Automatic annotation (TrEMBL):
Signal peptide from the UniProt entry: none
Gp5/Type VI secretion system Vgr protein OB-fold domain mapped to chain residues: 351-423
Stored InterPro entries: Gp5/Vgr_OB, Vgr_OB-fold_dom_sf
Species classification: Bacteria, Pseudomonadati, Bacteroidota, Cytophagia, Cytophagales
Coiled-coil stretches: none
Entry-linked Pfam families: Phage_base_V
Protein name, per record: Gp5/Type VI secretion system Vgr protein OB-fold domain-containing protein
Highest rank taxon of the organism: Bacteria
Amino acid sequence: MNQAITVTLTGKKQKDVGDALIHLKTEHQVNQVPFAELTMVTGNFPNTDYPLFSEDDYKIGKELAISIRYEGQKEIDHKIFKGIITQRAFESVEEVPAIKLKVEDPSFRLKNQAGVYFYQKKNGLEIIKKRLNDCKGLSVGKTNSRLNQPKYEQKISLNQTAWEEIGMTLQSCGLVMAWQDGKLSVLDYSDTSSTYKLTIDQDEIVDISLNQKANHLSKEAQVSYWDPKNNKIKEKKEKSIPLASDVDAPKMETNTLDLTEIAEAEHALQSFLLQQKMMAWEGGVTVIGDASVNLMQSLQLLKVPKGYEEKIPITKVTHYIEKGVWYTQIGVGMQSEDFFEEKSTEFDMQLGEVQSLQKDPQGLGRIPIKIAAFGKETFWAFLGQLSAGSSQSYFRIPQKGETVCVAFLHGSLSQGIILTSSYLGNKNPPSPFKLSSDTPMGFLSEGKLQILFEDKKHSIKMHTPDNHQVILGKSEGVKVESKGGIDLNSSKKMSLKASGGNIDLKGRSINLN
């Protein structure tokens, strides 16, 4: 069967390059950027009709649409790809100059877009839309209700590419992504309502290779997460696919304490089920070219051995030309490299600046700070103390403007805890403290209440801004001073003794009752 290959440049006349085409392949795969590869003869040979086309029409950055049509069948064009030229090369093919193009879906831009993103009260869908808005020519098509919950109170993405964040956001909900013409479709592979059916003896089938495997499966997953309101570790469980029980697969337990809501734990289990289901299959079917196949369908083979007749989600669609014939390869299953993995990153402590004290919107006892690395948004952090018991405690709230050091619980950037404060830059401690070896140790409140420890003088001093003072020292002994009054009261016996000296009582008048 003869084909004519039509390459369409946006806004220009269609160019039939069937005679010039050496190689054509297009590929759409879940969690991957769709691409097309074309090789066409070109050149400027004397006494020939070259060039067949102008290379300027195929510059990097040009938009290109690729269609295939069968001659003699109403000449209907079947569009199989549309994208942007991202690579161009000249090479020799059997001593004939050729141009080689790589065309990619506009979603390739997501892999080069990174930065610091601070999300407040945003759900998964809102996070995805935010990242897409920062890349030209991309939009959201089909979505899924799982992305609506939970709504993250604060979530930080630190130098993660948009591609990675969108992929991880979807995968955490047990979903995958598919792209076409710069539009994102969110796929739920538990939905098999749209089915591409093939009978094994159909003439259209060229090749079948389906492999079912169970050596990587777990029969049950248990996810542990942290409930910060009750400060408890909780668990959720989910059984795997039946195939895992057939081989008596082991259980899998994961401690994902960076998760703090039951909805997040449930999503983590959905992600587990997705990977179990998709990694149980590999291979696919090759048929004579069919543009109707897409990633939103499930493949179902009829008249096949038992166990192979179930609906299997289509994860890859490849169109290619070989010896003048158009073929479509339908792939199923996903391998480990097709999934997104959490990066193992050790988060260093960050410096923050304390803001005006406000009520914690979650009632968790956190205080508002700003962390320069996270942008200008307010970040809520737990407050570390020297002691935080129910019957004994040290309690202090840092004041506005104070520089604090923040660490992160369970490796989660969303769960900061203030460990200490520090004098940095041009900030110096208030009097009487100074950065020198003879400075006293002690405490100074915002209201100028002082407790000082001076080792060289062997003294402890307590001082108020109203000039009330208590000194316990080597030279002073015990000294109490006040410009107000001093009252010594006891409900029982009180004794004044000076075994080695006198007791002096001085005053305008001395009353003894």
